[in-house]
Amino acid sequence: MDEKETSYPVYSPTSVIGIFNNALKLNAMINLIYLKGRYAFGGGKSYGNYYYDQLFSEGDNVSIGIRISSLLRSKITNNEIYTLRGFIEKSIKNSSIELRFVVDEIVNKEERSISEEELERYALIQKKLEQGSKDLETLVRDKMLKDEEIRIANIYGNNAIVQRDFAEGLDVSAKYFDITDHHCNITSSTAIIAKLNELSILDYDIIALVRGGGDRQSMETFNDISLSKLFIDQRAVMVTAIGHTVDETLLDKLADRRFHLPHDYGAGLHSNAEKLSHERLNSRALLIDEVKKDVTKQFSEQVETLEKQLKKKNDEFTEAQKTYKEQIDTHNKTFAEQLKVRSEEFQKLQITSTKQLEDLHKNFQEQQKQRTEEMQRYKKEIALLHEKNVQSAISENTASLKVTLETLKQENTRLTQKVQSNTTNNIKIIIAFLLVLIIGFVLTKVF
Questions:
Q1: Out of 121, 165, 345, 354, which could bridge 263 as a Cys pair, Cβ 3.0 to 4.6 Å?
Q2: Euclidean distance between CA atoms 288 and 71, whole angstroms
Q3: Which ranges of 109-224 would DSSP assign to H, the alpha helix?
Q4: Mean pLDDT value of segment 344-349
Q5: How far apart (Å, rounded) are the C-alpha atoms in residues 393 and 387?
Q6: Is 222 buried (19+), middle (13-18) or exposed (0-12) by CB count in 10 A?
Q7: Quick one: pLDDT at residue 1?
Q8: Cα(108)–Cα(114) distance, rounded to whole angstroms?
Q9: Mean pLDDT over residues 132-150, rounded?
Q10: pTM of the predicted structure, to 2 decimals
């Protein structure tokens, strides 16, 4: 009888993970659910037209991975509160389960109010902008030109292993620097503050916070307000190299120089040192550099002098403008007062002139009336005088005619007598008779 071969299932690690992956089924993984939190961008690249980001709880720093399409992601603003609809997908890697929320729809965006902490952060950034950043390259240049060592204090975590990354980046330029390593709990803002207070009195040229990565929740340490206030008040050049290339903390914004990784930090110092070392090999380049410094200094002094003169001229111009404005205001006020007085005087003169005109018109009417009355009186007197003159002339003429008539009568009588006595005088008589008729006719016309 043949012995039966014992059969048993044989699984690979992939098969086991696949079995457990398919066995874990929850309603949240089958049905659509709504998720609300603060959206944070992850890497800057998309994979298969999807982005992989993080969604943080509003009350703490717990987050879940997000997978979102490029179209929906283009409607998202970093660090804003969103309500998203989608489903949970899971994957098992190296015996660990990773959950990820796949976004199907952006339900709404919640308007965030500005908190007191955000206002303080903004005030610190403004203060740093006003102070200006200390230049790392200039510090390295000045120290190396004077053949002085550059004293550096690097602050690492208690169990950090990134010192070798920094050393690899620094390479052969380590000879130009006097580097001291200091350790503390780099995820605690209180521990970092204590370490900065300790280092601030040791007269270091450069103080750097160096970290090689870590979870995102611990990055909030570098957003601490108290730590940030102390950070920007340090005399030394302040440097950050805290690992995350995407996230930018408040300390990164306030640093005089930010490096993404410890290796970048060391490489940056190496680059500056190598650059100056090559310059020093060329004496002509060094001389030119010195001349440039002198020219720059002279130019800076000239610019400063011109700025002072310009400021003085601006102040004088402002003062002149102020004086001119005061004079114009005074002149306008005086002119207005004079205009008011002249207006009142003109009104009074107008009233007086109107009254005088009325009086003149009244006097003229009265005078005209008197003249009319006088003319009437003169006319009556002239008429009466004329009548008297006519009567006198008539009387004179009548008297004269009477005398003539009497003379004619006497002559007529004499002539008659003479006619009678002398018939030869008949012609004279006829002529006398005709004369009498004419005189009578004239007298008749007169009377």
A1: 165
A2: 55
A3: 116-131, 136-145, 163-170, 189-200
A4: 85
A5: 10
A6: buried
A7: 45
A8: 19
A9: 87
A10: 0.46
